[in-house]
Specification:
This protein has 853 residues and is an alpha+beta fold. Among the domains are: 141 residues, Methylamine Dehydrogenase, Chain H (7 Propeller); 86 residues, no CATH class. The strands form 8 sheets. The chain has a 5-stranded antiparallel beta sheet with strand order 1-2-28-27-26. Helix 5 packs antiparallel against helix 6 and helix 13 packs antiparallel against helix 14. The longest helix has 42 residues. The termini are far apart.
């Protein structure tokens, strides 16, 4: 029965490995083969071996060959029943055909045996007088029996079975020294001599070249076994001494082929690198990785060999990287040399067989569950979860995830634990609630809060959300407030939270707590309390609350505080008549006249009804007189007498002038007097008179100017086109000195001349237009008109024109298009209208009058 092999010892000393080695994830699990093999090794030592998917076979130091199943039990075959197939000395090499029917062995006794395991028909027993180190069977699976095999001594020879079972030998190559190793794949044979490695092409019957190997210092190359392995039909792995070379057999390209008489194929080393140990065997692992069995170069303190290692290496162009290295506990490892170990493999099953003289260990890829268990034991939970996600297995992903969460909580990595909950729990309410309690035990509900489910698909019981809120309230009031803003209010019992805030209210956090209360009150529908809280805080979110819940009826008594908080936002609400009645706003703003002025001034821009214009007159006088006169001019919704009284009380002369002017009559004269005596602006007085164009006003202005010589010229300049200048000229006293009078008179005369010229030109233009239009009219009336033959008289309905017949009477045509014979038109020269159209119009009028009776 197989037993587990210990691989954790440090070579040579037996002490445990370092923690760094233990943290490297193992690729393999190791099993020491027992059963019948154990009994054989009690009396003999293994010298060579080979592995087939059906069985194991090895040769011993005593020259015996044993075949066992993969559990180490002996299998009865021709090898165990016939002593002729036993060598007299140690077996050097064993090869098995791909079908598992024939075995080839060789030894230093000079014998090469080809043995059928279950048939003796094609057996061969050859005896050479030389040491035979290598033998290889034809890997071709199509041929039945053994038709070809290769033997290596001091040359490389191929033997082919011909007619009547006769063997024909053909020397392929001569070796430098002896042939040390042979490996056959398809048409290519790789072999090693004392000088290096060659590949022979059996199709072309030529060598593809020599790869010389570097001789180690103070060593001989032939003292090391050359390890071959074909990873595929064209890729050869070579491990010799401490160097590994990856070679690809490829066809020469056109440039290479043209350079001379060279073979079609070439051996191209794509990667070469050295190892820290001597190589006892190698095998493919993945596309770019190898499994290498190594013999350590170092020796123990008492100069004994150290434990062998098995290493997984990733190769690159001229370097490699050790993925992992396991130290192997092989029986009697202190006694062995590099050539005593060998490595076989079944690549399809990812099993590797480590063979030593007194031990046989199988390295298998570690299973998914075992790998996950190891990762869990070494706290590599993320990698364990990744393995389960990729490869499955019997261990539940959720189980590992919860172990990982516990590990993170224990190590105070609370945020990572919370993120993991979100990743693995999804919408599992029960698991969420269970894990929330774990965070509660560590007082770290704040860490998990951003990841808690809050949708309808997965909503926890209210108690769990309240626990989170209470922890925030205790340790992070700002976070508590933010959470209330983010979470839907249906997750928790708002009344419980309000009561808890009251119990734990702290003055240093008053602002945050009051805002939290405002939110909670709004969630509960207690909008009056919510508005009070926001206004107490002077928080502009009150406007969002008003808009969100249409609380326009609730703010009637809070208008002044809202304006104090943000006039712009407040007026956006107050100026909308659909939201709040302006009468309500005006009533609330009466105690604060400035706010009332701001409101009514803004309301006037959006509401043209003018309901509060009388009040606005008073407010403009008080807060912004510059807006009063433009307002008075454009508005018609105030009482003029009241506005005039206000303006008189404040001596607002321009406004008084406008209002008095609107009233007209005596009031207009009063307005003119204000301009002359209070404002003292003669230009304004002139413009006022022009605007009203009243004779009494002009007389007042002229009388006033006659008394003041300095303004006479200004009046003269202003009255042109309005008043006869004689009126003011007659008022001038003889000898009175009037500045600039001459210029004003000249200007006045020039203006009158200009007006006369304008009238003459206009008359000429009018007269020219009249004659031109009259000429056009006469010409149009004299122009001939087209009359078709089929045209009938509108009176007698007879054709007015006939072909080739002279016209008996003149024709009369009206502009409407009707044509008459001249006799058919009574009173021809006194009749300006078409009788037909005129009678039709009379009929329509009669029709209308009849329908109206």
């Amino acid at each position: 029965m197989a037993e587990t092999a210990d691989t954790n010892g440090d070579a040579g000393t037996g002490s445990t490995s370092t923690e760094e080695e233990e943290d490297v994830e193992p690729k393999f699990k190791y099993t020491r083969m027992g059963n019948d093999l154990k009994k054989i090794l009690n009396t003999d030592l293994i010298t060579c071996s080979s592995v087939h998917p059906k069985f194991l076979i090895f040769g011993t130091k005593r020259g015996r060959v044993h075949l066992l199943d993969h559990q180490g039990n002996c299998v009865e075959t021709n090898l165990s029943n016939d002593d002729r197939h036993v060598h007299t000395v140690a077996v050097n090499h064993i090869d098995v055909d791909s079908k598992g029917e024939y075995v080839a062995t060789c030894s230093d006794d000079g014998k090469v045996n080809i043995t059928g395991l279950f048939s003796s028909e094609n057996n061969q027993n050859l005896c050479f007088s030389k040491l035979i180190k290598a033998v290889a069977l034809d890997p071709d699976t199509k041929s039945s029996g053994v038709r070809r095999f290769i033997v290596g001594d001091d040359r490389l020879t191929i033997y082919e079975r011909k007619f009547l079972k006769k063997l024909k030998s053909t020397e392929l190559c001569t070796a430098e020294g002896n042939v040390l190793s042979v490996c056959w794949n398809g048409n290519f044979v790789a072999w090693a001599s004392y000088l290096g490695v060659r590949v022979y092409d059996l199709n072309e019957r030529c060598s593809l070249g020599l790869m010389k190997w570097e001789v180690p210092p103070q060593e001989r190359l032939e003292n090391f076994r050359c390890n071959f392995r074909w990873s595929n039909d064209t890729t050869l792995l070579v491990g010799w001494v401490d160097t590994i070379r990856i070679c690809v057999i490829r066809k020469r390209n056109s440039i290479e082929a043209a350079s001379g008489n060279l073979p079609d194929y070439i051996v191209d080393p794509i990667s070469t690198f050295q190892t820290t140990f001597y190589i006892s065997g190698l095998a493919p692992f993945t596309r770019t990785q190898l499994v290498v069995l190594g013999y350590r170069k170092q020796r123990s303190a008492d100069n004994k060999a150290l434990r062998p290692v098995i290493s997984v290496m990733e190769y690159k162009m001229h370097s490699s990287e050790e993925i992992l290295t396991d130290s192997l506990s092989i029986r009697d490892f202190e006694k062995y040399t590099v050539n005593d170990y060998s490595l076989n493999c079944i690549v399809e099953e990812s099993r590797y067989f480590i063979v030593a003289p007194n031990d046989f260990v199988v390295a298998s890829l570690i299973g998914t569950d075992e790998r996950v268990q190891w990762l869990i034991a070494h706290c590599k939970y993320e990698e364990a979860m990744a393995v389960i996600s990729t490869h499955g297995g019997s261990i539940d992903l959720l189980t590992v995830a919860r172990l990982y969460i516990n590990h993170l909580l224990k190590n105070e990595l609370f945020d990572r634990a919370a993120k993991l909950c979100l990743q693995v729990f999804g919408n599992n309410k029960a698991l969420w609630q269970e894990e929330v309690l774990k965070f509660f035990e560590y007082k770290q509900l704040r860490s998990v809060s951003p990841y808690l489910p809050t949708s309808e698909d997965c909503k926890l019981d209210p108690h769990y959300y309240e626990l989170v809120l209470y922890e925030f309230l205790e340790h992070d009031v700002s976070g508590f407030l933010n959470l209330l803003k983010e979470w839907p209010p249906t997750l928790y019992n708002g009344r419980y939270v309000i009561n808890t805030i009251g119990d734990r209210f702290r003055k240093q956090n008053a602002n945050e707590l009051l805002e939290a209360l405002a939110l909670l009150y709004s969630y509960q529908g207690d909008f009056e309390s919510a508005l009070r809280m926001y206004l107490k805080l002077q928080n502009k979110d009150v406007f969002k609350l008003i808009h969100r819940y249409n609380l326009y009826e609730n703010i009637s008594k809070m208008i002044i505080p809202l304006i104090q908080l943000d006039r712009k936002c407040a007026f956006e609400i107050l100026l909308d008549r659909k939201k709040i009645n302006p009468e309500v706003v005006v009533h609330q703003l009466e105690p604060n006249q400035e706010y009332l002025y701001w409101y009514l001034d803004a309301l006037d821009k959006v509401d043209k009804r003018g309901t509060f214009h009388s009040k606005l007159v008073e407010l403009y006088v008080k807060f912004d007189r510059s807006k009063l006169l433009p307002f008075l001019r454009r508005s018609k919704h105030y009482a003029i007498q009241d506005a005039l009284a206000i303006c008189k009380s404040e001596n607002l002369y321009p406004e008084m002038v406008y209002l008095l002017g609107c009233m007209g009559g005596v009031e207009a004269v009063e307005a003119l007097n204000i301009i002359i005596y209070k404002i003292k602006d003669i230009e304004m007085a002139i413009e006022f008179c022009k605007e009203h164009d009243d004779e009494d006003l002009w007389n007042v202005l002229i009388d006033e100017s006659a008394e003041k010589p300095d303004i006479v010229t200004k009046v003269l300049d202003g009255i042109i086109d309005y008043v006869n200048p004689e009126l003011i000229v007659n008022k001038i006293k003889l000898g009175q000195k009037i500045p600039h009078l001459r210029e004003s008179v000249l200007k006045m005369l020039w203006h009158f001349n200009l007006q006369e010229e304008k009238l003459d030109i206009a008359h000429q233009i009018q007269q020219a237009d009249y004659f031109a239009e009259h000429s056009e009219l006469v010409a149009a009336q004299r122009r001939g008109r087209f009359v078709p033959y089929e045209q009938c008289c509108a009176k007698c309905n007879r054709v007015v024109l006939k072909k080739d017949v002279a016209v008996s009477s003149s024709l009369v045509e009206f502009n409407c298009g009707h044509i008459f014979h001249e006799p058919c038109v009574p009173n021809l020269y006194g009749n300006e209208h078409c009788n037909q159209c005129h009678s039709l119009q009379d009929d329509q009028e009669d029709s209308v009058s009849v329908s109206g009776t």
